[in-house]
Amino acid sequence: MTVLAIETSCDDTSVAVVRDGSVLSNLISSQPIHDTWGGIVPELASREHVKAIGPLLHAGMQQAGVTMEHIDAIAVTTGPGLAGSLLVGSHVAKGLAIRHGKPLLPVHHIEAHIYSGYIEHQSLPFPSICLVVSGGHTSLVLVRSYTDYVVLGNTRDDAAGEAFDKVSKLLGMGYPGGPHIDRLAKQGAPDAHTFPRGLAKDASYDFSFSGLKTAVRYHVRDAEPLTDEDRANICASVQRAIVDVLVMKTMRAAAEYQVHAVCVAGGVSANSELRATLASRCAEEGLQFAAPRAEYCVDNAAMIGFLAAQRYAAGERGDLHCTIQPRGLRA
Question: How far apart are CA 209 and CA 300, in angstroms?
Fold first, then answer.
């Protein structure tokens, strides 16, 4: 089965072709226009998607060596995300599906992230625990199959990626903040500062990073002017605080539900300390561990096409009248 997939949930336009679980192409067009604003401007994001989607579709299919005659179905992200961005992708996908008589398969963006670790590790066993960490989401999920999962916990306020972004902005660094903090943290001491570890002692699997963000804001205010060493120490301490909570709750869930594998996904899953710490803890507990390669960590169409194909094979069928759903991950 060959699936043409489109992803436009936020500020990355992506097109992929997935055949029988193998990714033939996965192109991503980022939007540097937002760097000036230190965050995503929804209206600008929508306009950039409109500019990029046509050329990217052509290039993606050309790289995969396919035409519309080879495509069996079209998959598209329908949420969550920015409403205007989702509309661009869904309208293009609907148009193609109607024009060429193809099934249209709606895919939930976060659900696609949950299964992105399986793209390159399809022998990974179920059940597993998946930690989804990005700029807008921090969720812990018990994954039973490609069609069955249970959300164990979500962030109650700021997502982990949002905390990285806000701290980076406080320190005068770029957007997105995760890569900048990860890089500078390697030069700092993670025990230089003791920042809050929100809900660390809470019995739930929920997360909270607003207290950490506030603590860093006050620390920076009181410590200015900051030296390069100060910034490195703050980055290392912030990163350690976030990773500590993420890993602790993930491993606790893995033990409670007696799973065989642990996955991490989403943009923040590219963080080097998070990956290394989870890999080490899983090895200690005898669990398989999977983390997507960098291009599958960020918003990408390959994960959309991969999950759509798995669910189509399981009997799910598309809906030409699918509507966007900008918010939410079902619990």
Answer: 26
Cβ atoms of residues 83 and 323 within 8 Å:
no
Pick from 289, 249, 260: which is nearest to 153 by CA?
249
Token digits of residue 34: 């937002």
Q: How many helices (H) and strands (E) does the chain have?
A: 10, 10
Kindly report the CATH number assigned to the domain that includes residue 255: 3.30.420.40
Report residue 286 as tokens: 């005898």
Domain, as residue range, for 93: 2-114+296-313
Quote the pTM value.
0.90
pLDDT single digits (tens) 271-320: 999 999 999 999 999 999 999 999 999 999 999 999 999 999 999 888 78
Cβ–Cβ < 8 Å for 284, 239: no
Distance CA 23, CA 264 (A): 20
Cα separation, 42 vs 287, in Å, equals: 40
